[in-house]
Amino acid sequence: MTSVRMVTARTIAALLSLIALASCDVSAGHPPLDPAVPAPSEVVAFEPLYSANCAGCHGRNGRGSAALGLADPVYLAIASDSVIRSAVANGVRGTSMPAFAQSAGGMLTDAQIDAITKGIRSWSRPNALNGADPPPYSARASGDPHRGEAAYGVFCASCHGPRGEGTAKGSAITNGSFLALVSDQGLRTLTITGRPELGAPDWRGDVTGRPMSDEEVTDVVAWLASRRAQYPGQPYPSDALR
Question: Which domains are assigned to the chain?
């Protein structure tokens, strides 16, 4: 009887050990894997991907924050899927928009980039612009800064100041730090879309009944770009450093 009891006790102990081993990793410090929680690279639902990677700059539900709102109907009307995907995957050179694709040094897989692109596009609404035809996303020709200065005076100066120095109604847009952080394409996009969440009108709203033409947008961007400092943030005149 004693030997039978000893065998039974050993059997129970062995079973308990197997259960314990099955419930956790044998390596110290490694918690058990929960099959219900996917690895970060396996998440392909748009909402958590957008929340984790995009909302901090572009706002909750794409409504805008530090950066323009991706749900803006004007932006969605001018930006193709390839434009959106390229910006998410590769970032925008010369700006604060980083690359998110693993192939470009980011953390997201191609499937996740596709999910974000498709999710942003899902915010599009039929006839959201009531038939209005905005200027194209990309410039079709080189702009003329001299014409751009005149166009700026017509469409932009009332809010942003005669030289882009800013007023109570609009921010300084010839500020060296701002121009250092935005690309020419970014300037064009903002000129077309505006920032409605900040009260800045799109290409139709600066002058009543007089939307900006493609050429005027291109020229204004050329004038703004001509104001970009070679060494932004320089605290002293260059002569003082020699």
Answer: 41-121 (1.10.760.10), 145-226 (1.10.760.10)
